[in-house]
């Protein structure tokens, strides 16, 4: 009997790009990583994507094809000491070998700031080529100094066709499964439960295969009866993750607290990181409520800090309070629209010069050439206001912010009209 001690997902792990499933936007002909391999050089990079799409495997394949020394750490059980030891090995090795090692760090988002700081010098000086893997948005979880030294590549959940091809390959080529009589009568439940995660698909499939020589027919009923009770349908990093967070946000934006609470419960029961939920509520408070209720942003900020301190299970109560409050609040996306319009205007017009009267004049030379001249200090005038121009000359009269149709922003609209007269006639 062939040993099954090694999981099927590990037995099927590819060792070259030809056997790698998916991510053709990165490794296909003419794609960015394929080109890098052809030149023999890859930059330090972050692989961002859900579990089971090949981040760890891809890092190993890149190192193998480039014939680089390969060091791997997991952020779960490694510290600064481990990082420094590997960097020191890499420096010594680099003295005798111009092929600098690849340092792979799995779940790099779990590293603290100090742990990430310890990587900076080695990456900057080229002692190692860093490949980090993360399931979280690196913009939030990787320090800006390290992120600026890395390229970020996004890996996608696997499509149903790719998952089925992988399953067929396992049945035909795996030493253990190849001895079985397996018929894939139905695959919808397998695909659904996998959530685009190849490792999860193979783990689920392995649970179904019995130690028998008789023909085994895989049906949706069989999959659901044997697996569903032990496998949450909410995959916090697969396709359902994105669908459910979308439904969650849209329910709150649509002022439906009941639906918001339902989707919150789905995420909590599925094991979602409560800080991820709180972070999305922070964004929603500014994007969808804004000045219609400025208190919403404060409550969402307090929620995030409280969730960090308390953790689950009690954090569910804090999240529920915030969800119901945000869903019940008046809505406005005026600030969101304003910054979008302004950023597009800046992109279209470039760096327009700052008007002279608004420029700082710390030296006599600057004063002599007109810096700060004719600037009117608002607090020196009645009502702390004086009509003057604050936009560049070619942008005068441009309007980005239009207060929303709610009680608070209507009051803001009236005030702006009173102050600026025709300039703020919406």
Query: What's the CATH class of the largest domain, please?
Result: Alpha Beta
Report the mean per-residue pLDDT as an integer: 84
Task: Give a quick account of the main beta sheet: strands, pairing sense, barrel closure.
Answer: 5 strands, parallel
**How are strands sequenced across the largest beta sheet?**
2-3-4-1-5
Distance between the termini: 79 Å
Helix count, DSSP H or I runs of 4 or more residues: 21
Question: How many domains, as an integer?
Answer: 4
CATH architecture of the largest domain: 3-Layer(aba) Sandwich
Low-confidence stretches: 229-233
Shape: globular
Please indicate the percent range of residues in DSSP E strands (runs of 2 or more).
Answer: 5-15%
Helix content: 40-55%
CATH fold title of the largest domain: Rossmann fold
Rg, please? 28 Å
In N-to-C order, the SSE pattern is HHHEHEHEHHEHHEHEHHEHHHHHHHHH
Question: What is this structure's SSE topology?
Answer:
Elements lengths: L7 H4 L12 H4 L4 H8 L5 E4 L6 H12 L3 E5 L5 H17 L5 E5 L6 H5 L2 H5 L4 E6 L3 H4 L2 H4 L3 E4 L5 H14 L8 E3 L3 H7 L3 H11 L7 E3 L1 H8 L11 H15 L3 H13 L4 H16 L5 H16 L4 H14 L5 H16 L14 H5 L38 H14 L6
Parallel strand pairs: 1-4, 1-5, 2-3, 3-4, 6-7
Helix pairs in contact: 10-12, 11-12, 12-13, 14-15, 14-16, 15-18, 16-17, 16-18, 17-18
What does this structure look like?
- The protein is an alpha/beta fold.
- The chain folds into four domains: 22-154, 3-Layer(aba) Sandwich (Rossmann fold), CATH 3.40.50; 160-230, Helicase, Ruva Protein, domain 3 (Orthogonal Bundle), CATH 1.10.8; 239-328, Zinc Finger, Delta Prime, domain 3; 340-424, Orthogonal Bundle (post-AAA+ oligomerization domain-like).
- Helices cover 50% and strands 7% of the residues.
- The chain has 21 helices and seven strands.
- It has helices at residues 8-11, 24-27, 32-39, 55-66, 80-96, 113-117, 120-124, 138-141, 144-147, 160-173, 188-194, 198-208, 220-227, 239-253, 257-269, 274-289, 295-310, 315-328, 334-349, 364-368, 407-420, and strands at residues 45-48, 70-74, 102-106, 129-134, 151-154, 182-184, 216-218.
- It has a five-stranded parallel sheet with strand order 2-3-4-1-5, sandwiched between helices.
- Helix 17 runs antiparallel to helix 18.
- The chain is globular, with a radius of gyration of 28 Å.
- Mean pLDDT is 84; it is low at 229-233.
